[in-house]
Amino acid sequence: MKKINDIELFxxxxxxxxxxxxxxxxxxxxxxQDNIIKKSQYNEYYKKIDNLYKNxxxxxxxxxxxxxxxxxxxxxKKKGRYGYFKACDRFPFCNFTEKI
Length: 100
Prior knowledge:
The protein is of the alpha+beta class. A hairpin with a 2-residue loop joins strand 1 (75-80) and strand 2 (83-88). Helix 1 crosses helix 3 and helix 2 (24-33) packs across helix 3. The protein has two domains: 1-60; 65-100. A three-stranded antiparallel β-sheet has the order 1-2-3, with no helix packed on it. The protein has helices spanning 6-19, 24-33, 42-60; strands spanning 75-80, 83-88, 97-99.
């Protein structure tokens, strides 16, 4: 397996994380399933992707608030069955939500 750099990693995972809102856990498992990374590299790549997206959110959404529950994630606007709400981007590890 070749070493994947940060730009390739961001490009490979942005569809699942930014557009489909499936989360980092999902993205890392797909990378393993597609033989891009080894199963033993799960934690390393989870942290790497988490940091990539934290930096992305800081640059793109300067007004985004930190999650008050986990203190690590960011609150993003999402659309649910009953309308819009804000939720922590670290779901399923943090289940904080807030009505808008």
